[in-house]
Automatic annotation (TrEMBL), chain A:
GO terms for molecular function: proton-transporting ATP synthase activity, rotational mechanism. Residues 76-147 form the ATP synthase F1 complex delta/epsilon subunit N-terminal domain. Belongs to the ATPase epsilon chain family. GO terms for cellular component: mitochondrial inner membrane; proton-transporting ATP synthase complex. This is ATP synthase subunit delta', mitochondrial. It comes from Phoenix dactylifera.
TrEMBL record, chain B:
SUPFAM superfamilies: Epsilon subunit of mitochondrial F1F0-ATP synthase. One of its GO terms (biological process) is proton motive force-driven mitochondrial ATP synthesis. GO terms for cellular component: mitochondrial inner membrane; proton-transporting ATP synthase complex. GO terms for molecular function: proton-transporting ATP synthase activity, rotational mechanism. The keyword Membrane applies. It is found in: Mitochondrion inner membrane. It comes from Phoenix dactylifera (Date palm). Pfam families: ATP-synt_Eps. This is ATP synthase subunit epsilon, mitochondrial. PANTHER family: ATP SYNTHASE EPSILON CHAIN, MITOCHONDRIAL, ATP SYNTHASE SUBUNIT EPSILON, MITOCHONDRIAL. F-type ATPases have 2 components, CF(1) - the catalytic core - and CF(0) - the membrane proton channel. CF(1) has five subunits: alpha(3), beta(3), gamma(1), delta(1), epsilon(1). CF(0) has three main subunits: a, b and c. Keywords: ATP synthesis, CF(1), Hydrogen ion transport, Ion transport, Membrane, Mitochondrion, Mitochondrion inner membrane, Transport.
Amino acid sequence: MYRQASRFLIRSLGGSRRRTAAAPRAFSTDVLAAPAEDAAFVEAWKKVAPNMEPPKTPLAFMKPRPPTPSSIPSKLTLNFVLPYQSEISNKEVDMVIIPATTGQMGVLPGHVATIAELKPGLLTVHEGSEVTKYFVSSGFAFIHANSFADIVAVEAVPVDHIDPSLVQKGLADFTQKLSSASTDLEKAEAQIGVDIHSALNAALSG
Amino acid sequence: MASAAAGSSAAVPFWRAAGMTYITYSNICASLVRSCLKEPHKSEAVNRENVHFVISKWANGKPEKPTIRSDSPEE
């Protein structure tokens, strides 16, 4: 019922342009600016249970996404979360460099909306003159058109929590496992080990 | 994710070609990173990621003796 409410809204907004290919269709993940309430449902509810508030749907609880501003904002709002804690939440920063699978990607305010898969590597957050570095094991980065960036990682550690001797040992171990691996799966696991430890090495020295 | 415009087997990552899913890959990466940490952080991380669960098999409507498993989350 509430899903159709958004369709009604779009129809009234789009008007006659609805039929043309140029009419933009709203994403299902876009939260409406004002939570849409079905008037007919609320009426019927009030008849049946006048003393109780009509129930709210999840859409009513969601905060609407801040709209895309017309001019490029000066700061990027960053959210960096791990499964067990929220490392950075709603922090305004100048730039963040993320280790995407396609290479180190610098994200500035006004970046085009992007979804990037992260490879093991360094994530650097630049705010004024201070730079915070994290080593990220893997994850995703969602950059939205309104200069909000959400980065999710499974494991992220500040670089000074890493032990260089363990990294060297791990690199040697996995390089040796890679050369002696027989099945595809063993090779893949050894390759992952080599990738991770070389990335850790590079992060420690870079 | 593996279905690129070019067809079925275009540029899949090596772990997917070997039959691994992304979650397995990601968990292996995370546990390897955890194993390379300096001491107080390493034991905190290992404790945090420990998984203990109890499995009870049921037969004929009755639970049998439960087994306790405390797997580390690698596999």
